[in-house]
Amino acid sequence: MATVRIPGPLREAAGGAELVTASGSTLREVVDDLERQFPGMRERLVEDGAVHSGITLAIGPNQTNDLDAAVADEDEINVLPAISGG
Amino acid sequence: MAAPTKPEYKVIGTRPVRPDGIDKVTGRAQYGADIRQARMIYGKVLRSPHAHANIKRIDTSKAEALEGVKAVVTGADLPQSGDRRSDKSLNVLAADKALYRGHAIAAVAATNPYIADEALKLIEVEYEVLPPVLDVREAMRPDAPVVLDWVRTTSMAGTGEEPTNVAAKGGFNFGDADKGFEECDEIVEGEFKTKMVHQGYIEPQACTAMWNPDGQLTVWTSTQGSFPVRNDTSEILDIPISKVKVVPTEIGGGFGGKIPVYIEPTAALLSKKSGRPVALRLDRTNVFEGTGPTSGTSIKAKIGATKDGKLVAAYADMAYEAGCFPGSSVTLGAMAMFAPYDIEHVKIDTYDVVVNKPHVQDYRAPGAPAAGFAIEQLVDELAEKLHIDPLKLKQMNSSHEGTRGPGGMPFSRIGQEECVEAAMNSEHYKSPLEGPNRGRGVASGFWFNVGLRSSVNISVQPDGTVNLVEGNTDIGGTRASLAMQLAETLGIAYEDVKPMVVDTDAVGYNDVTAGSRTTYATGMAVNKAGLNLIEKMKGLLAAKWSAEPDAVEFASGTFSSGENSASFREAAGIVAGPADATLNATGEVSAGVLVGGGFSTHIVDVEVDPDTGKTQILRYTVVQDAGTAIHPSYVEGQMQGGAVQGIGWALNEEYYYDEEGKMANASFLDYRLPTTLDLPMIETVIVEVPNPTHPFGVRGVGEVSIVPPLGAIANAVYRATGVRQFELPMSPRRVLETTHDLG
Amino acid sequence: MATHIQVSTRINGEDVDFLCDTRQSLLEVLRDVVNLTGAKEGCNNGNCGACNVMLNGALVNSCCVLGAEAEGAEIVTIEGVAQGDHLHPLQTAFLEEAALQCGVCTPGFIVAAKALLDEEPDADEARVRHWLAGNLCRCTGYDKIVRAVLDAGDEMRKAPAGR
Q1: Does residue B341 sit in the same domain as residue B440?
Q2: Is B in contact with A (3 or more beta carbon pairs below 8 Å)?
Q3: pLDDT tens, B413-424?
Q4: 3.40.50.300, 3.30.830.10, 3.90.700.10, 3.10.20.30: CATH of C4-80
Q5: CB within 8 A of B351, min separation 6: which ones?
Q6: Is the N or the C terminus of chain C less surrounded, counting Cβ atoms within 10 Å?
Q7: What average pLDDT does the structure give for chain B?
Q8: Is A44 at the interface with chain B, CB within 8 A?
Q9: DSSP 3-state of B534
Q10: Looking at residue B645, what is its pLDDT?
Q11: Within an 8 Å CB–CB cutoff, is residue B157 touching chain A?
Q12: Domain boundary at B574, B590, B606, which?
């Protein structure tokens, strides 16, 4: 089970939690599991089949907006505000 | 926590002459505008004189009829799929709206630049001028004119419905800031403003494009990223990547500003239409008005501490200009600004705001310097109120390994504490500063190093030297730092490595020379290639020595197996004869995005003339953690260069806009860069806390040195005058106005 | 209408005849007609020094001189600073002391510094900073440039190089 760090604006949707665990071998599956645990969470993370334009996902230090990116059990997934520039 | 002892390196840490140096001191090196192609003609761009206008009509017929004009293009020549072209495409050539003064509207190519200039004057454009939006907080008001009718506010809470200039809302929330502030004995706050400034590279953008009849496009250009130029050009022109070759020339400075394409697609179109190679070069005014300066900002911030000096809570509201398209570095600034400190409760609200100015672009540690101007002054104010030495206050609250870092991810091994300590122990800090109107200021800063992707090829020559083929433009000595890392890996002399920067057809994908990533990530690729080569040579030697394949060892530059031993050069001779395998290896790395990073602390002494308001820098010291300094001279160079850009930003530089959105000072006469006369020597102290993620411990050093100067100088000016500065630049006029209560 | 003019001049010790547009600056002529691209355009209005050359023994911004003004003149550009394959002490100092990063301002600085050191090889830091204030560098912060010029001055006093 990967760990997912929930940022402030989304914590209400996650029952107030800052750190949750979720199962899945890709980001897409992790999002599905988060939706199962916290109904309504998916639409905060995904929009029109892609990562929501207001956020960036990171697996460990690797930012990625590829929902098919692989996730391992020891990974920590971060939900960050969309980072432009850089 | 004792640092591990530094390994004994043979090449790393020395100061050899860079391989491209001779060409650069003799005038032989070829920069963007030095490219010459047979039958080359000259392109020029027509730019909007208005900051905000609808384009009703463009008539290029008279320009096309002028003798010597070979091609004319407008936005209509760029492909469009969907309701509108991409922001990148619209910035290259406008569609039906001019979004900033300097926005490219049309372009011509002619047999000489004078005819091209005449042709521009013959292009008729009918504009419907609109009121420009020029102030970031004004642009956020619900009644502000909307610059782009498709922009809606995106945020983690969803996407807004109403047209707006606020393109994005974001931020972070750690702990409980409201509760945290209640626990504070001392709280300071302020509202800070900074102006748009330019990277100020001395070489304007310049490219030459040649569109062959077979559809193959070659672009020579001065760029920080030949592969991104290839990608962007292919996307904007809707042609396959395989049809585009980008040849990076030497580059006369970039600092982030030469990452996007501004002129390459236009030059390519002109070449296609004319059937000739087209040289398109910007002049200095075009550079100021038509490329990518960095955001002006408005930051409201608040920090609180206990009376013992423990920082407990912090809040910031940050609004950054994005320019005419969404996408500023406000989030990166928000991530970097509190990095030097372990603060339990931090809340930040960020706003990315569209205005009628050029679309902003990265400028060395994008987003962080302006944030540092605010935060480092507030921390300084707390130090004063609590009667604690400002460096001591930083030491007491220092981030270290495990502290919650940018975005919430914990830091791995970092060097903020070591930098602060080195600053406290420096000659500079230990010398008293005496005399009237003088003050000393300190500030700390952080910046990431970016990892991303690099790939290199190496091949061994018959004489045992090694060619290193890489794809990263060499802006500040990276041919040398990469050659040094390869030499160290292979146990050979630096002089035996021949590095070269090649075009996009000749090497695998390389991300930009930017983000403090080249010595770091391309260095990792170089090291990998070296290790791969060693493995290959071990196998080949085993055959020659009739040994088991894995019985050959390599250590300290020597291969050995039983009684046989050979230096790298000897081994190359043994295995690379005419009947043998060619000795090549590659190294590829995909090193993550925002990985690790480095800290820097600056000390500055100033004297402020009470009659003119002019600030003189008396003494300046940069302390910075390089992880491991591969080539100390070039590390020092980055430290000094970034600090001086910060000095210019703090004291003089700004885009001075009139009410119509015209930059009134678009030349080097009035946009005041620091000169030799403005500065003393810049003292440097390199701290080395090795980066655990790099084989040699390297941390990127190219950017962080621009983060502390704004705050350090502001703190020094405060100590010298008794008046705190909340707006940049702290020009003589501004200092006089604030210290004499004028304006 | 544009006209062209025939110009006879001496560049880096060699006779050069060229034809140029009367509007062209000396900088444009050097770069586009005579093919000496060492002098660079940074601003085209005399504010950055990247186009520095010597004209009849005086340091000039070649962007502010007309090509036609080169008639009968002696011009020295960055390409004429080294003597064959012997680098000038300034060039050696810049290399050894890492006084360049991107290198685009380097030709201008070397020509300008040579103009100073040829007359005053013992110029001190203040004098060097004053003389070089017309040359902009955005990469180095000038520290290593000033040190390299001072060290080159020391070298030149020990063993005066040919002009």
Answers
A1: yes
A2: yes
A3: 999 999 999 999
A4: 3.10.20.30
A5: B136, B140, B166, B168, B169, B317, B318, B319, B320, B330
A6: N
A7: 95
A8: yes
A9: helix
A10: 98
A11: yes
A12: B590
